[in-house]
Amino acid sequence: MVNERRRLVVLQERMETLFKKAEELSVLCDVEIGIIVFSPDKKNAKYEWPSRDNFKQLLMRYLDKPLVERLKKLTTNEMFLRKEMDAKMKKIDQQKTEEKEMEHLFSQLYLGENTVFDLDKRQLIGVRNLAIKAKEKAVKRRIQLKYLHYQRLSLPIDCISL
Fold first, then answer.
1. pLDDT digit string (tens) for 55-69?
2. C-beta neighbour count of 134 within 10 angstroms
3. Calpha distance 63→5 (Å, rounded)
4. 55 lies in the same domain as 87
5. What pLDDT does residue 86 have?
6. What is the rounded distance in angstroms from the CA atom of residue 128 to the CA atom of residue 102?
7. Rounded-to-integer distance, Cα 103 and Cα 108, Å
8. Which long-range contacts does 117-122 make (Cβ < 8 Å, 24+ apart)?
């Protein structure tokens, strides 16, 4: 019973927050928003925002539009997630391309084909980050090798100092 009461209190608090955010969004972006929440505690208990009459008017204006026009602006969860995934994949591809570019610049610097004075700020930062990653990888590998070496000696682990 306490958990049920607490759940309803949390629901009420979250709905107040949701309605406040909806009002902010409505004002800031000059859009019309309608929210309906069906409460789990009572049968057919529902809350409309901003008010029951305003919600009905907004819903009727929406339903009066032709189906083709309504579907044109409708974003389903699948469409939203697909757009998000495409954006993330594009960002990953850009990062891979930039990482390859930095590896190429790093090898040019190493071979003496290029100097740090020939690089712009973005390239310098990228090469620095690549060098940091390479150093971290080398340190991790050295720790692994030391651990394996001491493991072969069969010494107790607390005797190992890295």
1. 889 889 988 988 888
2. 12
3. 37
4. no
5. 96
6. 9
7. 9
8. none
